[in-house]
Structure formats: C-alpha cells, structure tokens
From TrEMBL:
It catalyses: butanoate + acetyl-CoA = butanoyl-CoA + acetate. Residues 278-433 form the Acetyl-CoA hydrolase/transferase C-terminal domain. Coenzyme A-transferase that converts butyryl-CoA to butyrate. Pathway: Lipid metabolism; butanoate metabolism. CoA binds at G219, T220, G221, W222, M223, I319, G342. The lineage of its organism: Bacteria, Bacillati, Bacillota, Clostridia, Eubacteriales. This is Butyryl-CoA:acetate CoA-transferase. One of its GO terms (biological process) is butyrate biosynthetic process. It comes from Syntrophothermus lipocalidus (strain DSM 12680 / TGB-C1). Residues 5-188 form the Acetyl-CoA hydrolase/transferase N-terminal domain. Keywords: Fatty acid metabolism, Hydrolase, Lipid metabolism, Transferase.
Amino acid sequence: MGLMDEYRSKLVTAEQAVKVVKSGDWVDYGWCVGHAYELDKALAARAEELTDVKVRGGVTLWMPEIFKIENPGDHFTWMSWHFMGVDRKIYEMGCGYYGPIKYNELPRYYRNHVKDVDVAMFQVAPMDRHGYFNFGPQTSHMMAVCERAKIIIVEVNENMPRCLGGYESEIHISKVDYIVEGPNPPLAQLPSAPPTEVDKRVAELIVSQIGDGACLQLGTGWMPNAVGTMIAESDLKDLGVHTEMYVDAFVDIYNAGKITGARKSIDRFRQAFAFGAGTNKLYEFVNDNPGVASYPVDYTNHPSQVAKLDNFISINNAIEIDLFGQVCSESSGIRHISGTGGQLDFVQGAYDSRGGKSFICLSSTYGKKGELKSRIVPTLTPGSIVTDPRTATHIIVTEYGMANLKGLSTWERAEAIINIAHPDFRDQLIAEAEKMKIWRRSNKRGSQTVVA
C-alpha cells in the first residue's frame, strides 16, 4: 500500500476518532501548542457518555473544551505536567492536578512508570513525502508517549511548523491509527510583557556576567525574557542556545546577530530546544529551519548533557527564596502555581559546566504599593515546594544585587541574601536570622553582594 493510500484508509472525522475513548481511560493530549484541538471538541461532545476519563497535558495555553462543559469533574480529570494560567483555573475547579517531575526524566516516566496511555491524541504538522508527521515545536517527550499509547490519533494542522531534529521529532504513518484533518487553527500566542524597571535592573546585572561565546538557557517568565531583550541590545557575540523552552527572545537575539553557535562543543551552529511557545515570529522562525534543532527533553535538559557546554548560562525565575538559599518557583504555600519543569536540571547542569553560571532572578518584593511583601523570607511559606535545594542554588539576583551562595556557611548565606532584599525588610530579616541562629553579631549590614 502506498503512503497516500494508507493515509486515506486512516482518515476519519474527529467525531469518529474519539469513539475509541472509554470511561476509565487515560488519554494524553500532547504538549503546549500541540494539544488536541478538534479532537478535544469532539470528546467534550461525548461527555455525558463518559466518566472517570483522565487526561494528561501540560504548558496549557487555552482552556480545553472538556472543561467548558457543565460539571466537568463528573466526567474528566486533568493531570498537568507543568502549570500555566489555564491549568490553575482547572485546578481551582477541583478537577485538575499536577504531576511532579524533573523535566529531563519525563520520557523515562512514560516508558517505565506511567500507568497507562490508552489513547494519545495531539496536533501535528502535515505528513511529508516520506510518511512522517512532525510533532512541531514540542518534541519534548512525545515519542515516549507514542511508544506507550495503545491508540494514536494525529490531528493535522497546516499551521504547525515543521521543526527539524535532533531526533524523535516525528512519527511515521505506520505507527498512527487514525488521522484527523483539523480546521487548521492558528497556533496559540504567548507574547512577552514589556519589562518593568525592576526587570531591567535584574537583566543589567545578569548580562554583565555573560561573556562572548556563552551558551544560553532562558526560563519562562518576564525576567528571563527581559534578559533576552537586553542581550539582543548588547555587544555580546558568538552566543549559543541550548534550552528547554524556545521563546521569542531567542529570535530577537539571533536577528540582532548575537547567536552563531560557533563556540558550542555540541550541536555547533544549531540552537537546541525541547519545546517552544511564543508569537508567530517564533513559529515562522523555527519552521524548516536547519539552524534550530528540536530534541527530546532527556537530551536538552539532562544535567550531564548541559555540562558538556562550556560557559553555560541558565536564567530562571523564583516566587520566594529563604535565608537558607532554598528556592520555591512553583507554589505559594499549598496553592500550586507552576512546576519544577527543568529549573533544577539547568541549575545543576550550568554549575557543572566549565565557566557556567546559574541565575535565579526575582523582584525583591510583590504586592501593591504600601502593601509590599518581601519575596526573600526567613523560611519558605509553610506548604511551599522547594524547587532548588539550598545545596544546588548558585547565584540569586534581585534589583538590589547578586548573591553567589556557593561555598558559604549558613550565616554567610543569610548575610548575602539579606543584602539583596528590599531595604525596608532587612532589619526584620536580620532579627529572624538571629532567632534561627544563622546571624553573627560581626556581620556587616547594608553591603551589596556582587558575583566575582
């Protein structure tokens, strides 16, 4: 049978395809901009026939139709590997949950530990002349999902960019059970907000620590994007990219002539990433671009792989940091906000890189003017999750300076961290540090800790 004959034999409507889903099934929707779209609508239309259908996804950029129905929890449960705003809304509805991960391990979870994948349904780029459907900008763990799935349904979207490998970046038609030709929706947009003055100050401090030929990883959030914007405006040259998430800032840095990848020890001249989300600027850039390489996340994120790249610079956000150097980037108390994602992967990998640095950045305060609260606290809020243990944390950055925690005792850490807290909270933090017996009377107050 020829490829087109096989294609036609597997082509069905979304309504026909989702009939394979049964009550009690585990269904995988894919990842990020590749989440099921028309298939999701068709499954929502079957809600009254179904109970206890458990759906996995992550980095969710639009509300799935299965959670727009009346009493969705009576029929569906959402399990996200990484929370975004939409995931938090489903969580607040009482039918959404988080799957704790070290992101580099996610393919292994599917291959060795995940209970079931009864049906996998997700968007792909159109089939090429060799019979392959490209996963688009979310190679991530998709091959591992497909290897575990009992039934695979691909939803073709002509707007999905074809992201070259790397490896494990596409699936052959012979492995697919059903093909649905969707309505070709535009890809979800994830624009970055204009940087605040605090973002700009943090970015200035970090960019001052980056040298020519460095290899970059930018995490999600406004501050890493602000750093990217400032790098694009800098005099840096011959930068490389090896990142979990590919964002608009990388396109800006490349277009400014700063990224060549010439000094990378692996994937030379190519920007490696596990998944991407941004605006059309990004999707058009990565489409059929041999200068970027889409890899599974156990390649991009594994600390041993990151460590192979000299002068690796990892830049990530935090919600709260305590005086011991513990970093929380995923919850506020027991309220889940984000996820571990690959932050710990890159914190460890960057420090192991020759000349590498891991930056955790945050504003010193949050809240409305007159009601400001400190993001630097004596101990993490009860229930808050430790994303990076104190032994892994390298450099913390706020608008008041940088603190390199490596090699410091508990009292030295307390001093360094307090010195980059908002001045209005420093005396209170010192008092708490004294109660916790991590403050020496000889400590200097008010000096700014700078990375050497």
